[in-house]
Amino acid sequence: MPIITFSMPANVTSNSLNLLIKNIFGRIFAVWALILFVTTLPIAFLFYLPCFWLNEPAKANWHRYVSRVWMRIYLLLIGCPITIVGKENYQFGRPYIVLCNHNSLMDVPVSTPFLPRANKTIAKKSFTRVPVFGWIYSFGSVLVDRKSEESRKKSFLDMQAMLKLGLDMLIYPEGTRNTTSQPLAPFYSGAFRLAEATGNDLLPVLLFHTRSILPPGKFFYCWPHPIHMHILPAEPVNGRSALQLKEVLFERMSHYFLTHH
């Protein structure tokens, strides 16, 4: 009676083994990243304390300075150094409405500190419930309860006030993390309505490789990878509607991401 044997192709076995090893080390590295974050958070918080008494824009400036030092050290220790490309596209004149893609939980602690000027980001009010981190989060944010119409209207006025104070407004126009296979998820209109209302230029910014570090859908996993922040030339409003601006910026940012990824 003939003996029937089955064998897996060598490349399939090798790929499976590599994936298993990467998943194991990704969890181990996540422990290291978490330990570092938890141990450095109280130290950083001591330096954030002046934010309780400072007024804007001094609060945002101090918040950005402390965040920049903390995150620079933290990112280096977890093997995720950041490189900024296109600094020459940032002009220190009128404040920008900064548009940033959103692929990972890593995006917020990277974008806020490393933009060239102090800024506020639009952020969910629910995150302020996290002990200690919630205070730090609120210092750098315009908070909004997305379920409340009144809160959304107030946040729109607050964002205009921040721009008048000379602070950039950092907005993730995708609204939440992009978990699709496309370079960008569809944009919401809020940032573009703000530009239409204020006339402030829109500044596109793209983050690369943050999804490789903290992939959406992978539980307790972290992988070291350099981060690149690309600052693109600003887009003036020039009397265009929010819808026109949304279409133009979506096309520009998608094309740039595809050609530089």
- List the helices and strands in order: HHEEHEHEHEHEHEH
Tell me the structural class: alpha/beta
Extended strand count = 7
Q: What portion of residues is helical?
A: 40-55%
Radius of gyration: 21 Å
| Name of the CATH first level | Alpha Beta
Number of domain modules: 1
Global shape:
globular
Task: Specify the number of helices.
Answer: 8
Average pLDDT taken over every residue: 91
Uncertain residue ranges: none
> Which fold name fills CATH's third level, the topology?
Glycerol-3-phosphate (1)-acyltransferase
User: Kindly, what is the distance between the CA atoms of the first and last residues, rounded to a whole number of angstroms?
Assistant: 56 Å
User: What about the largest sheet?
Assistant: 7 strands, mixed
From the coordinates shown, what is the CATH architecture?
3-Layer(aba) Sandwich
Enumerate the strands of the largest sheet in spatial order, edge to edge or round the barrel. 1-7-6-2-5-3-4
- What percent strand? 5-15%
